[in-house]
Amino acid sequence: MKIYRFIQSKSVREHLKKINYTFSPLQMAYIIWQCPDATLNERFDAWQEIIDTMPDAPLPDNMDLKEMEGVHEFLRQYMKLQKEFLDEFNREEGGVYFYRYTIRELPNKSWPWEYITIENFDHAFLSLSECKRAIQEDIDYESPLLSGINFPVPLKRCEEEEMVEIVVQRQMVSANFEITAFLNERLEILAFDIPQKYLEPKGEQLMNAFKKMYFDIPVPFETGDIVYADMFYPNLMSREEPCPVVFDSISGDEKRCFIYSVDSKSPTGNFFRNEIKNYLALEYYREELNGLGRFLKTVSSFLKGRLDLEKLIQTWIVLSFDQMTAKVSEDPEENRLQLKYSVDGTDELTGLKTTKLKTNMININGSCRNIASSIERKIRMR
């Protein structure tokens, strides 16, 4: 089986190939499930290949499926349930369809991606074919290069826009039941989402089974590495822009992956330790860090033992101050405040640069004493 097709991260794929890692049947089943761009039919074929070509194995106790003999029976039951959802979703009579179509665009290089919902379950369609036709019209307009048609839309607009999400919801007319499907640009089904209130106990167990799986699959990342990650698991179909974070560790019986990240939405920014589920999607971050994200470089240097706590705190104070003044400043970032590192980017800070005198007026030593204990707890108590 071409299992690496289902691992999105190039860094993780290359590492596993290099060490010649051997996957268990259940690990392979999980990897197939977690892949965000695999179609439902691709998953069916891959799971069936596991059943046909790999030895059976018992299920772990935490999956709460003791009545099942092993991985093979679990996959058969899971696929059977998914195919029932597929039949219900495709049934033309007795239901109406709605869809949500979201794109993101980059207004200019100094602003982050902006998410725009073109349709948000606003119109009902009597058939799936009518619903898909309306979606295709949106795709043809918003992504003419993808659709392959000769559409009079500037090339630049296509490069700065990207389809993020296509969601189709089917609601039954005569019964209280709804089923939601995530689709790709070719309108192929990726996965289903069913509210738990509509599921029988066995169906609910099966739908939650993969979320209860925990594996210690090797990754190449070390403490302090800067990576980018999708912060919105377990919504596996989400295509929100990954965030740069600092990798900490994978630990515990549940193999929890911990990272450090910054949030620039508040006036002075926030810095926190967080947990992500799908560490197989992590990738090395090699782009330039801007704004408050520059602090991730400092955290990385600190965790690798190349920067002391005092410099860590000083950097946070300065960047927080810059974050606050940026809200009201019209100057570009390079004219406000810069942190200078040595050539390798890991030694102590070498200085600050600014074109505005007022941004130099920072009482670093006094501020350090006030927040040292807070940052030290976040970093050292891991």
Q: What would your notes on this structure say?
A:
The protein has 382 residues and is α+β, with helices and mostly antiparallel strands. It folds into 3 domains: 3-90, no CATH class; 95-173, Ubiquitin-like (UB roll); 226-380, no CATH class. It contains 12 helices and 12 strands. It has helices spanning 10-18, 25-34, 40-53, 71-90, 128-142, 144-147, 155-159, 201-209, 295-303, 309-326, 333-336, 364-380; strands at residues 95-105, 114-120, 161-172, 178-183, 189-193, 226-229, 243-251, 256-263, 270-276, 283-284, 338-340, 351-353. It has a 5-stranded antiparallel sheet. Helix 3 runs antiparallel to helix 4 (71-90) and helix 10 (309-326) crosses helix 12. It is globular. The two termini are 38 Å apart.
Percent strand equals 15-25%
Helix content: 25-40%
Number of helices: 12
Q: What's the SSE pattern?
A: HHHHEEHHHEEEHEEEEEHHHEEH
Distance N to C terminus: 38 Å
Strand order of the largest sheet: 2-1-3-4-5
Rounded to an integer in angstroms, the radius of gyration calculated over CA atoms is 24 Å
Tally of strands: 12
Structural class: alpha+beta
Mean pLDDT: 77
Biggest sheet descriptor: 5 strands, antiparallel
Number of domains: 3
Instruction: Enumerate the spans where pLDDT stays under 50 for 5 or more consecutive residues.
Output: 144-158, 231-239, 339-372
